Amino acid sequence: MNVFFQDPWWLILIKVVALFVILLVWTIFNVWYERRLVAKMQHRLGPIMNGPFGLGQALADGTKLIFKEDFRPQGTDRLVFNLGPLLTGVAAFTTWTVIPFGGQVEIFGHTTRLQVTDLPVAVLFIIAIASVGIYGIVLAGWASNNTYSFLGAIRSSAQMISYEIAMGLSIVGVFLLSGSMSTHAIVEAQSNPIIFRVPFTEMQFDVGITGWYAILLLPSFIIYGISMVGETNRAPFDLPECESELVSGYMTEYSGFRYAMYFLAEYINMATVSAVAVTLFLGGYLPPWPLNLIPGIDNPWFGPIFFIIKVQLVFSIFVWLRGTLPRFRYDHFMDLGWKVLIPVSILWIVMIALAPQYTIGLAVALLAILIAFSGRTDAAEKEEIDTDEPFDAFAGGYPVPPRPGQVLPELAGVVTVPAGSGEEKQGEEN
Fold first, then answer.
1. Beta bridge pairs of residue 120
2. DSSP letters along 72-93, please?
3. Could you list the residue ranges that cross the membrane (predicted)?
4. In angstroms, rounded to a whole number, what is the distance separating the alpha carbons of residues 72 and 81?
5. If pLDDT is split at 50, 70 and 90, which confidence band does 204 have?
6. Which of 307, 321, 357, 409 is disulfide-compatible with 285, CB 3.0–4.6 A?
7. What pLDDT score was predicted for residue 334?
């Protein structure tokens, strides 16, 4: 920690400006990258006209938003309406101050790290700032004086509470194994090789690869991966926006530069949670195996290259999900957070605390327990369903799809009267 307190003010300023520029350029690239990758998945060309390979399209979109008419509807709370995008934008940039891009280097004769700063509780700082960013969405929905915006804000607050609990529990295992909450210390702890220990014996052997926590704490990594999609309001968990139901959710009444702030924050937040996943689970700026066996590859100036490549690969998962999965139903989304992710996280933490040296074996045991429990639950649900009588999908006044084992009654030639004929539209049996 002392290395940061020795940095002169001009070196800190250089780091802050460099970080700001990197995030802006990276966001422009990610907008283009997402469009191109989704286009490849859907057999389209994507942006190709503006600039080489269409790289100028994202820049043109950003310029258009800056100069676009920016208006505020009547009846809105002016102060809170303007404060919402500001909070979200500031929180998106602030989180990156404790994320390490590389190790310890020499810059103009001063020893420092490729990181703005570090804290003994840096990971908790990241979670706290992410919670502040959600306030920008909640305030936008409340101040817009619009029903769709307010529903989007309510969904966002429920989503934040549900999935931030699961996200926080998923990283407890990292704290237990690394013994630190400092992002730099967690990355360095993953440089140690994996030692596989045979339960109930003295036998142990070196697996030969570095101990990424994505391997040692696979359940934690999976839970974090699901939670980070829910935390960033991205498809298939984009319920606060949900264009098919809420027009554009909390952003419905925003335009121009204020809309651009939300758009910018969304892509920075995707890069942020990807960077946190890389830092906590994928070795951060450390070279992956077997590149780490090459002499000289551990040069700290190569760290940002490995870090950016890893973050971009994790970011690609967001794009893949958006291009392939449909949006979740809201009750299913809440069930996944409260009934699956949180209980599994708590069970996994207890297992790690009891036997931290056998994490790989515990992960296999947890997976077997979940598979067995899932099969038993499905069988119990099928037994509860009474299949003797036909299922009436409209019994409650609203169409409900049949559950597994239920059968819809056969329709004996229903005849409907075309709309606009002046007659009442109803079914008649032949």
1. none
2. --TTS-HHHHHHHHHHHHHHHH
3. 12-33, 79-99, 119-144, 165-187, 207-226, 259-281, 301-321, 333-352, 358-375
4. 8
5. low
6. 307
7. 86
Residues pairing with 210 in the sheet: 193
362, 351 contact by CB (below 8 A)? yes
Nearest to 133 by CA among 157, 98, 101, 109: 157
- Between strands 193-197 and 110-113, the pairing is unpaired
Q: Of the candidates 395, 396, 397, 347, which has an alpha carbon nearest to the alpha carbon of residue 370?
A: 347
Closest CA to 186 of 195, 197, 177: 177
Structure tokens at 119: 């804290």
In angstroms, the CA 287 to CA 310 distance is: 10
Cis peptide preceding 219, ω within 30 of 0: no
d(CA 125, CA 121): 6
Residue 231: pLDDT band by 50, 70, 90 thresholds?
confident
pLDDT band at 42 (very low <50, low <70, confident <90, very high): confident
Residues 6 or more apart from 198 whose CB is under 8 A from it? 204
Residue type at 45?
L
Sign of CA dihedral 292, 296, 299, 305: negative
Q: Is the peptide bond before 290 cis (omega within 30 degrees of 0)?
A: yes
207 φ, ψ (degrees, to nearest 5):
-70, -30
Please give the model's pTM, rounded to 2 decimal places.
0.80
Helical residues (DSSP H) of 325-423, grouped into ranges: 330-335, 342-354, 359-384
128: its two tokens: 């706290």
Q: How confident is the model at residue 100 (pLDDT cuts 50, 70, 90)?
A: very high
Q: What token pair was written down for 78?
A: 């002016």
What is the rounded distance in angstroms from the CA atom of residue 231 to the CA atom of residue 234?
8
pLDDT above 80: residue 381: no
In percent, the amount of the chain with pLDDT more than 70 equals 82
Mean pLDDT of all residues in the chain?
80
Q: DSSP alpha helices (H): ranges in 46-77? A: 56-67
Asked whether the predicted pLDDT for residue 374 surpasses 80, the reply is no
